[in-house]
Design goal:
Maf protein; alpha/beta; metal-binding (chains A, B); 7 helices; dITP/XTP pyrophosphatase (chains A, B); homodimer; 188 residues
């Protein structure tokens, strides 16, 4: 099978690794493109990813160009921290989120990833992947990054940070979004 | 004294009223310009206001054009909620912020406002106003908006929501930023 090359705009090496793990299963080679994407304030990761893709396509000439935005949406907190998950992780941390969930019985949450593809013809495709789960009562595990140590995906008893890449590359929000993107790339 | 007219881009009627209260003291008339400003994700309100002003000056022809971005920065929470104060107010609310501060002795916080002025010659001026204070232990008062009911400015025992506009128009972050802006407008 001929391998295809795509560029992935990110400043997060964890994300580059995860996207590469997913796309390599489709014989797609991921070339990290170091740089900042422009992120707007919006209530959905789709909106953030779409705006970032529109802006990045003017600034970068590499094609196909990928980027993504993702977040943890906690039902009992009206979706918080949502698209601001990175900022909230850096300020409140896992402890802050767990404090907000103290005494809260409804632990349901979902990770959502919006992946954006800027195609050779400059058209933009957005695909969204989600994984449902629950917020744990304490951090567990040391794999992954961000809120992984307190997220238990539906059907599992371990957190993403305990399960690690073998499971994440099959069921994570990012895996699900980029598997859909892989179909667009193979079809090009 | 000749009154001068300025346009203020906002979707928040409370902010329009507060800015008008401040600038009317300088014989400056504020005309609200209804519309959304484009807000980026950034760790400071200055960055958010500057980007919004650069974008707004392309989209609106009215001059002088004002806009602002503001936020509540809590020391013990590494500045959270900062530039995302509106989102955090809509999701976690006052209760969520108070829950994060449970058992926290260091209550210090500051409201920061970055006011942007797009002048007749399209040059942009940014002025920042701050007010120091503390996070209260429970909400008090029904004036103002946002986090006003849990913010006690330094030198006072009441919250902004108890003190109301007579005090806010003299000492608030927004008042302080727009008093500096008034000097630019009078000097034009």
């Amino acid at each position: 099978m001929v391998s295809k090359k795509v560029y992935f705009l990110t400043s997060n090496p964890h994300k580059a690794k995860e996207v590469s793990d997913v796309l390599s299963q489709f014989s797609i080679e991921v070339v990290p493109l170091k740089g900042e994407k422009l992120e707007i304030q919006a209530d959905s990761v789709e909106e953030v990813a779409r705006f970032a893709a529109e802006e990045a396509k003017k600034r970068f000439k590499e094609r196909p160009l990928l980027l993504e935005d993702s977040g943890l949406f906690v039902d009992a907190l009206k979706g918080f921290p949502g698209p601001y998950s990175n900022y909230v992780y850096r300020t409140l941390g896992l402890e802050g989120l767990l404090k907000l969930m103290e005494g809260v019985e409804d632990r349901r949450a979902r990770f959502v990833c919006a992946a954006a593809l800027v195609k050779e013809d400059d058209k933009i495709v957005i695909e969204v992947g989600e994984v449902e789960g629950e917020i744990a009562y304490e951090p567990r595990g040391d794999k992954g990054f961000g809120f992984d140590p307190i997220f238990v995906p539906l059907g599992y008893e371990k957190t993403f940070a305990e399960l690690g890449e073998e499971v994440k590359k099959r069921i994570s929000h990012r895996a699900r979004a980029f598997m859909k993107i892989a179909k667009h790339l193979s079809g090009e």
